[in-house]
Amino acid sequence: MTRTTHRFAVSVAALVIGSVGLSACGANDAAGGGGGEGGDAATIAFFLPETQNARYETFDRPIFEAKVEELCADCEVLYFNADQDKDAQAEQVDSAITQGADVLVLDPVDGEAISASVADAQSQDIPVIAYDRFIDGADYYMSFDNEQVGRLQGEALVEAVGDTGRILMVNGSPDDANAGQFKAGAHSVIDESGLEVVAEYDTVQWEPGNAQQFVTDTIAKVGADTIDGVYAANDGTAGGAIAALTGAGVAPADLPPVTGQDAELAAVQRIVAGEQFMTVYKSIKTEAEKAAEVAVALAQGEEVSDTEDFQGVPSFIFDPVVVTQDNVQLLVDEGFWSVEDICTPEYADACAEIGLS
Question: Which first-to-last residue range defines the signal peptide (predicted)?
């Protein structure tokens, strides 16, 4: 297999997100192809880890399924969502194997915990694509440059707060390999700055409520007025941190800079309103469509090349983009969110103020 380095950059000029049906359907059902240009029939199992983050049911699933249908009209997609339960996900993998899946596209709840299931699939000549989160020993891996995500968040926070100040670090889930990479990237910037990390927390299962409780508890110890910024690993934890700060009496206009990731709608609205400083936009369309392309190719016995090596696994690594008030328009221009999505009556004035159209 040729492993030529190939990085997919998400650029404002080049990336155009097409229209895709975005209605979320029930988990753990099958979707057959029916209208694209054909190929040999195959069964592809697609596993997502949870429903806490809006992106999975709203974007990843429908985009993946639509691309499979386009590439292979006779292919069937078996869809599973583990609802953050690693044991349930292992059972789902067993079920997919029993149902005759030819390829597994797997976003793990816990990359280490699922390794035995991955090995079982591979022992039966079923290739496994690690999707978005790394699985050691997978046949392929595709995700964004996760340390770069953390670096971008750290750089944005340092720029917003300045060289001195006191911050909190609200990291991702300790059982998510990506979270460790985000944290490492952020620390590589923050540790070299003059910022003081007052307290740090790994948010169990990425639950916003857990993030909110940590920030609430920390505020009780140090006082809200001593916190100059918050590193939050994703938009859910950012929402929890902001809820804790406002719950402690900090006015929305006085909130310290808070980072995020995923460009979730609620976070984009907070950015427009000046309540959240930034998020990291990762083109889910780019990732999900490439996963579908690789899955269909493998299912049809084709060779997959143009990969790069990541920890010994042939990989496709995509580049993220920082979004603030200054460039939130790009999410509209690329079709990720519409003005109507973002600028609801509550946010209409804020949209007008920044010229979002």
Answer: 1-24
Q: Which residues 6+ apart lie within 8 Å of 328 measured at CB?
A: 268, 271, 272, 342, 354, 356
pLDDT at 16: 35
Model confidence, pTM: 0.79
Residue entry with tokens 């020993």 = 137
* Nearest-5° Cα angle at 330, 324 to 331: 85
Q: How far is CA 164 from the centre of its chain?
A: 30
Residue 224: C-alpha distances to residues 113, 157, 207, 241 (Å)? 38, 17, 21, 11
CATH of 146-281+325-354, one of 3.40.640.10, 3.40.50.300, 2.60.40.290, 3.40.50.2300: 3.40.50.2300
Whether 31 has a pLDDT exceeding 80, the answer reads no
* Alpha-carbon dihedral angle through residues 323, 326, 330, 332, given to the nearest 10 degrees: 100
For 13, residues 6+ apart whose C-beta sits below 8 A from its C-beta are: none
CATH architecture assignment, domain 7-138+283-320: 3-Layer(aba) Sandwich (3.40)
> pLDDT tens digits for 288-328?
999 999 999 999 999 999 999 999 999 999 999 999 999 99
Residue closest to 189 by CA, chosen among 174, 214, 205, 169: 169
